[in-house]
Design goal:
Number of strands: 8
Distance between the termini: 38 Å
CATH topology: Thrombin, subunit H
Number of domains: 1
Strand content: over 45%
CATH architecture: Beta Barrel
Low-confidence stretches: none
Structural class: alpha+beta
Helix content: 10-25%
Number of helices: 2
Order of helices and strands: HEEEEHEEEE
Largest sheet: 6 strands, antiparallel, barrel
Shape: globular
């Protein structure tokens, strides 16, 4: 563990918790067959966290827009890794301002050896 690992993740979490927006993360389990109902149903586990929420800009993401990796309306969340028990995964979902987004990509920023921040790309 590095010296930054001792301080930076905690500082990032404190600042995002204070200044970030409310977001709800939605993780669905694999559908399981229920013999009583005869149906396969998935269970949603939701938890709230804070994130810095941004729209992708054409200036900052021009190449990504041109290649189709980013579309108009995509959201970028920057959040503390410590808010999550497990790294977010593509296919997970999050709610922000009444809209449901599907996670397309997750980038991790390390403070040394530990994950400090996640940058999550979502599309409605």
């Amino acid at each position: 563990m590095t010296e930054l690992d001792l301080e930076l993740p905690e500082l990032a979490a404190e600042l995002i918790a204070e200044y970030g927006a409310d977001v709800q993360y939605v993780v669905s389990t694999q559908p399981a067959y229920n013999p009583a109902t005869g149906k396969a149903t998935a269970v949603e586990n939701n938890f709230d966290f804070k994130a810095i929420v941004e729209d992708y800009s054409l200036q900052g993401s021009g190449q990504a827009f041109a290649s189709g990796l980013v579309e108009s309306g995509d959201k970028k969340l920057t959040t503390a890794a410590s808010f999550f028990d497990e790294k977010p995964s593509p296919g997970d979902k999050f709610r922000f301002e009444e809209s449901l987004y599907t996670v397309l990509n997750v980038k991790t920023t390390y403070s040394g050896q530990l994950a400090c921040l996640y940058e999550i790309q979502g599309r409605a």
